[in-house]
Amino acid sequence: MTARLAVYAGSFDPATLGHLDLIERASALFDKVIVAIGAHPTKHPLFGVEERRALLEAVVADFPNVTVETFDGLLIHYCMAKGATVIVRGLRAATDFEYELQIAHANADLCPQADTIFLPTRTKHGFVSASLVREIASHGGDVSRYAPKVVCEALARKYNKGGVTT
């Protein structure tokens, strides 16, 4: 039996509890999961790629079948190089679906051996996005119900605000 390798990719700037929920669920479905942090030269993230990697490694430490890596270029090329047969994508709302379906179709055209699966976000995380977490944290707001503790602590340091609850 062949081990099933899945890739869950994103910018994770920063990782949220919604991301963690998808990672946990994917780790239960697949033999191995790579959480792949995309490095995009045109984006200006709050956390550098190595900071995001360190935060995610701390967040997924309890999942023995999950690793964290970085990549640049097309996700499908990265998946092909890794031998991944599944791409995991989270959906928060119907608006996510149209965009994600278009990308899934393009990936299937480029590499028919890889399938994309969509996991709906749990209701309690449906409105949470990394940009929302950054916005709240930038004003000293409490993001502890939206992000893992290690991320909350990193946000507090980044924004140098005492009001970010960890």
Structure summary:
The protein has one domain: HUPs (Rossmann fold, 3-Layer(aba) Sandwich). 42% of the residues lie in helices and 19% in strands.
The CATH architecture assignment turns out to be 3-Layer(aba) Sandwich
Structural class: alpha/beta
Per DSSP, the total helix count is 6
Please indicate the count of domains: 1
CATH fold assignment: Rossmann fold
Give the termini separation.
Answer: 43 Å
Provide structural commentary.
- This protein is α/β, with parallel strands linked by helices.
- The chain has a single domain, classed as 3-Layer(aba) Sandwich (Rossmann fold).
- The protein is built from 6 helices and 5 strands.
- It has a 5-stranded parallel beta sheet, sandwiched between helices.
- The protein is globular and about 45 Å long.
- The protein starts with a strand and ends in a 7-residue tail after the last helix.
- 33% of the residues are buried.
List the helices and strands and how they pair.
Blueprint: E1 5-10, H1 17-29, E2 32-38, H2 49-59, E3 66-71, H3 75-82, E4 86-91, H4 94-110, E5 115-120, H5 130-138, H6 149-159
Parallel strand pairs: 1-2, 1-4, 2-3, 4-5
